[in-house]
Amino acid sequence: MDYISVQQAAQKWNISERRVQKLCEENRISGTIRFGHAWAIPKDFEKPTDGRLKENRRRKMYEK
User: Fold this and answer.
1) Antiparallel, parallel or unpaired: β 3-4 and 33-35
2) Which residues pair with 38 in a beta bridge?
3) How many CB atoms sit inside 10 A of residue 20's CB?
4) Of residues 34, 36, 43, 40, the one with CA closest to residue 13
5) Which run of H or E residues covers position 62?
6) What is the pTM of this model?
7) CA–CA separation, 57 and 2 (whole Å)
8) Going by fewer Cβ within 10 Å, which terminus of the chain is more open, N or C?
9) Sign of the dihedral defined by the CA atoms of residues 6, 7, 8, 13, in that order
10) Spans of all domains in the chain
11) What sign has the CA pseudo-torsion 36, 42, 47, 51?
């Protein structure tokens, strides 16, 4: 399995590196591996949905 770094995932998903780290810490990204302070994220994993947003607002964000 191929892995990407937190930095690469942040660029791919257009979110901050800190947010990717939090998703890893909260086990919202399955298959992650932790190496000391770094995370390895499966390359083919899709961005998890943001549970902080309500469906109506999420839909409006993607319509723009």
Assistant:
1) unpaired
2) 35
3) 27
4) 43
5) helix 55-63
6) 0.75
7) 33
8) C
9) positive
10) 3-63
11) negative
